[in-house]
Design a protein that fits this description.
By secondary structure, this protein is α/β, with parallel strands linked by helices. It has helices at about 5-10, 20-30, 45-55, 70-80, 90-105, 120-125, 145-150, 170-180, 205-210, 240-250, 260-270, 270-295, 315-325, 345-360; strands spanning about 35, 85-90, 110-115, 130-135, 155-160, 185-190, 215-220, 235-240, 305-310, 325-330, 330, 335-340. The strands form three sheets. It has a seven-stranded mixed beta sheet, with helices on both faces.
């Protein structure tokens, strides 16, 4: 008798990361290709962070601090929370999984706007819960429709803000509609992986939104603005420490490495330098957005480190066209293509591909 995989897992499509630039370059016979598919920041870690990583490398023969004590304390000070209200994870996606393991099970519903972060459906299926997708309105969350979709079975609601992959964000009024509509027994997860790139004052900080709301928590990451995607470290903030305590119980022991913890603490100390880099990304984002509009591509206003081209059925063809020119973007079949803001010369190569695309289609 052969072993059996759970039917839901057997039928589950695996997460697909962005294509390797080195693989594409070899395929095309190019010296290098440009990867604008995974929302990585285009800069290496800050020099002080690299130095901290190098020093900590001598300790990797030992297990990491399982409680991430120094990082937890630094974040608690940073956000004026007790340490019991902070949880560390192997990237914010792992924290999404831990939340679902902690608060949902068979028969429970998880509500998301769709399209949103592609890992949500996978994680909900693994947890054994039921995913409820509410279509976006004008490329962003529809708060009235999401509020109407809440049922007695709704246990968790994910609000990706800014939303991945559409780059849009809900402002104060829309988020208030959602927060006011949800009962105290439903957990609202504000997923803010791209918060550091937000410049619009109408888009509230999730940390402020959760004040006085014990059923709200916030997820953030060091992967994007801080340039630590390769080390995998994210964090959760909760008004009610019960949420963070539950998440810590589902933590895979030692999954946040010593290097990741040290790098994250050093990154918090280099906050001003990080903000300067985010400013450079935002400037490029605005330049790329304006150029796309000039090329006839009606992209929504981005609040992240990427832009969204709502190409509908042309998304896959467009991605293939760009790849043939050595530029990797992230297509979502039937919806659009997400394009990371890279260095200026990388962005220029992408814009050149868009111009050629437009020209090839008459």
């Amino acid at each position: 008798m052969s072993v059996r995989v759970r039917p839901a897992i057997a039928e589950l499509a695996a997460y697909q990361p962005g294509r390797s630039a080195a693989d594409l370059a070899r395929e095309l016979g190019m010296s290098q290709a440009i990867k604008l598919a995974s929302n990585e920041i285009a800069y290496p870690p800050l020099p002080s962070v690299v130095a901290a990583i190098a020093e900590a490398a001598c300790d990797v023969n030992r297990y990491p601090d399982n409680g991430a004590t120094d990082l937890t304390a630094a974040l608690a000070r940073r956000f004026d929370l007790p340490v019991e209200s902070v949880a560390i994870g192997c990237g914010s996606v792992s924290l999404c999984q831990q939340l679902l393991q902690s608060f949902t099970g068979p028969g429970d519903e998880v509500l998301v706007g769709w399209r949103s972060f592609e890992a949500y459906p996978l994680l909900v299926t693994v947890a054994g819960a039921t995913l409820v997708r509410v279509p976006l309105r004008e490329q962003t969350h529809d708060p009235e429709a999401m509020a109407a979709a809440i049922t007695d079975a709704t246990r968790v609601m994910f609000v990706c803000n800014p939303n991945n992959p559409t780059s849009t964000a809900l402002g104060s009024a829309g988020l208030k509609i959602l927060l006011d509509a949800v009962g105290p027994d439903t957990l609202i997860v504000i997923d803010e992986a791209y918060r550091e790139f937000v410049t619009d004052p109408d888009i509230p900080d999730g940390r402020e939104l959760m004040r006085g709301r014990p059923n709200v928590c916030v997820l953030r990451t060091f992967s994007k603005a801080y340039g630590l995607a390769g080390l995998r470290v994210g964090y959760l903030l909760a008004e009610d420490p019960v949420i963070a305590t539950a998440v810590r119980k589902t933590y895979v022991p030692f999954s946040v490495s010593t290097l990741a913890q040290v790098a994250a603490v050093a990154s918090l100390r280099a906050e001003d330098e990080m903000r300067e880099r985010c400013g450079a990304v935002v400037s490029e984002r605005e330049r790329v957005t304006a150029a796309l509009v000039d090329l006839g591509q009606p992209v929504p206003k981005s609040h992240a480190n990427f832009v969204w081209l709502p190409l509908g059925p042309d998304a896959l063809e467009f991605a293939g066209f760009c790849e043939a020119r050595g530029v990797i973007v992230r297509p979502f079949a039937g919806d659009g293509a997400r394009v990371t803001i890279g260095q200026p010369q990388e962005n220029d190569a992408f814009l050149s591909a868009v111009a050629d695309w437009d020209g090839s289609r008459g």
